[in-house]
Amino acid sequence: xxxxxxxxxxxxxxxxxxxxxxxxxxxxxxxxxxxxxxxxxxxxxxxxxxxxxxxxxxxxxxxxxxxxxxxxxxxxxxxxxxxxxxxxxxxxxxxxxxxxxxxxxxxxxxxxxxxxxxxxxxxxxxxxxxxxxxxxxxxxxxxxxxxxxxxxxxxxxxxxxxxxxxxxxxxxxxxxxxxxxxxxxxxxxxxxxxxxxxxxxxxxxxxxxxxxxxxxxxxxxxxxxxxxxxxxxxxxxxxxxxxxxxxxxxxxxxxxxxxxxxxxxxxxxxxxxxxxxxxxxxxxxxxxxxxxxxxxxxxxxxx
Length: 303
Prior knowledge:
The chain is α+β, with helices and mostly antiparallel strands. It folds into two domains: about 20-105, no CATH class; about 125-270, DNA integrity scanning protein, DisA, N-terminal domain (YojJ-like (1). The chain is about 60% helix and about 10% strand. The protein has helices at about 1-15, 20-45, 45-65, 70-90, 90-105, 105-110, 125-140, 155-160, 170-175, 215-230, 255-270, 270-300; strands at about 145-150, 165-170, 190, 195-200, 230-235, 245, 250. A seven-stranded mixed beta sheet has the order 2-4-3-1-5-6-7, sandwiched between helices. α3 (about 45-65) runs antiparallel to α4. The radius of gyration is 29 Å and the shape is flat. The relative contact order is 0.08.
């Protein structure tokens, strides 16, 4: 009976689940998050087509292994390293974009900015109003424009493709830059803070398949820069005069004045300080109310 008991215990020990600790759970969550991000990244880039092609190749390889096709298996093993390098080279822009997105995540940005001083918004309300006025003035005149507003990601590499301006943002300056037949009208303007940093800058075009076919190079460039950085780009259509915004890889078309202002306030980030002030006042109000209730209770107890 003892031998039978030992055999049974050994049998069940083989199927016993390993002990899972807190670190194991954290590791599983991290791997699941990374796998999900990789799948989303592949779905929105050219990598998805390559993955589907590789899946077909793997199916044929499995058939070759089952049928013991030694020549095909030898060729696959010999060319594996070369194919891997070719895929990395082909996906170089997408891999770079993925690494940039990882660097732009909130928790990393917070760690990198611990030593920076808190500022009240990225640009003033005057600059915001000047941008809005210029955008809709150019829209009424059907003057095409591309205005990139820098946020956290530095735009130095795109700024170097244009001509340095370094001037205070005004509606007259922006309208004059994008006026037809002027030396600076072709390309994009980059705004950093309250100043126009550069004009005639070249932006990367988006290869997003979901974009409408009737959109031109100006809109694709705006979406492209928003995919590569966290900047916001205002587009004024030369054909329709409509004002659109590209932000976070998405295109928001045909905005009115209030909608454009709301988008710009996201980059300005003054809404964050307003919320914090509101929450602070709300806490103070609740604290004063609780103190009043405590005083009333103390008065009632004395009486």
